[in-house]
What we know:
Elements: E1 9-14, H1 25-33, E2 36-39, E3 56-59, E4 62-63, E5 66-67, H2 71-83, E6 87-92, H3 102-111, E7 116-119, H4 124-132, E8 145-149, E9 172-176, H5 182-191, E10 199-204, E11 212-217, H6 221-228, E12 234-238, E13 260-265, H7 270-279, E14 283-288, E15 290-294, H8 298-306, E16 313-316, H9 319-332, E17 343-346, H10 349-356, H11 371-381, E18 388-394, H12 399-407, E19 412-423, H13 430-438, E20 442-445, H14 448-456, E21 471-474, H15 477-485, E22 492-493, H16 499-511
Parallel strand pairs: 1-6, 1-7, 2-3, 2-6, 8-9, 13-14, 13-20, 16-17, 16-18, 18-19, 20-21, 21-22
Antiparallel strand pairs: 4-5, 9-12, 10-11, 10-12, 15-19
Amino acid sequence: MSSQNKTGKVYLIGAGPGDPGLVTVRARELIEAADVIVYDYLANPQLLKWARADSEQIYVGKRSGMHSIPQDEIEEILVEHAHKGRQVVRLKGGDPFVFGRGGEEISELQLDKIPFEIVPGVTAALAAAAYAGIPLSHRDFSSSITFLTGHEDPEKQTISIDFKLHAQSKGTLCLYMGLGQLPRILGELKAGGMRGDMPVGAIQWATLNRQRSVYGTVDSIIEDIAAAGISTPAMIIIGEVVAQRTKTEWFEGRPLMGKRIVVTRAREQAGQLTALLESNGAEVIELPFIEVQPDFNQQQLAEILAGIAIYEWIIFTSANGVKSFFDLFYKAFDDIRCLGPMRIAAVGTATAREIKKHNLKVDLIPAKANGDALATAFIENEGVESVQILVITGNQNREALVQRLESEGGAIVDTLPLYKTTKTDLSDHPAAARFREEGADAVLFTSSSTVKSFVDQAEALTLQPDATQPAFGSIGPLTTKTLQELNLPVGFESKQASLDHFVTATTAHLKG
């Protein structure tokens, strides 16, 4: 039966509060398999990195004052794609059945006899409280939790909830989408008898590294929020439990919390550096100076894969090469043993990590991560005369590596280019647009090439007048020298050329 005659299925998925680590395993499985992904404003776009390259991604985000697509049109999109036989993921921030209009979408799917599945998510109240250290329930202070909304329907000018009825609650009130109506809501709570000194917390962008929170009382919180600059999206928590929050700020107290840092992504290390910075609380903007795209000769690939077992060594010159090779290898073979008994070499530790994801041992890694050091290691330690070697590379070929293996070592070398790297046009890139508009506290350079790329794209990275001016950080002396040669001020330099030391130097500079 063709997909045109087969009804697809809609998966209504809670995308959680923002942190991708809080998404369920089931949600990730479905995102990875989806034909179509329909996602909201509060669904973290990072989740789309899990999607298939050929999936269709439709943004239907809605926020106060910016209703991009009406609800009935969203429901039509779901039905339309399901009728075409597609697997449709509907990503909604938080949990789809907690003020997420999931019920309306399910009703429409049932009317149209569309199969569906519901995948719950962590709702904002639970996440905001946990990341702010607020116990929503407490044996001595709160034995009930009430979820309330301050924004029922964009078309309605008023809300139907009588907040005076909740004023005498002995439990915790969690107010979703209530910032715009907060003066009125607090007024009703006081009119119903709530004390003016009742503790209140407001948590913005809960679970993300831009999370900020402010605390006060029913009488003071409006002024406290204004002074702190808290805006939407924010969760309001009201009750005695707010005063019982943890004294240790386990999330907001991390050393780089509130700092925005740019990683100049032109090396395999960028992902690891980003992870280290984010674990310390930084909000990271990755500027992708290069793009990696598949680029190979189909006939050459087929010939090499057909005779793959003849090679005694396979050399990977980059993590991108590892990814490209195994993507193609698994399309041709369904058993890793089809590689044969060959040994494996990697140009550096980042490349080796990518290889080890396939449960393969890396037999040779040079002390320095470059092709010349790898060639020396082969020639001096392995003895490669008449040895057949396959080198996996990109369009920036490792001619020197191959030449030394052949001329000095006497090896028989075949090269297999699988991808090309091209310079990214940052003029329309969203990360560059954000950098131009907001600036950053620091820009980190991990190599001379990233410095040169930054200067090459200077026009696309010109900051707006009120943007934060960043300090420029260098991973080591060679990168510092390039910054100085190109007339960029060096704010700080890592004491050792390692990512851990670089993050330590960044933290010391920004906290100093």
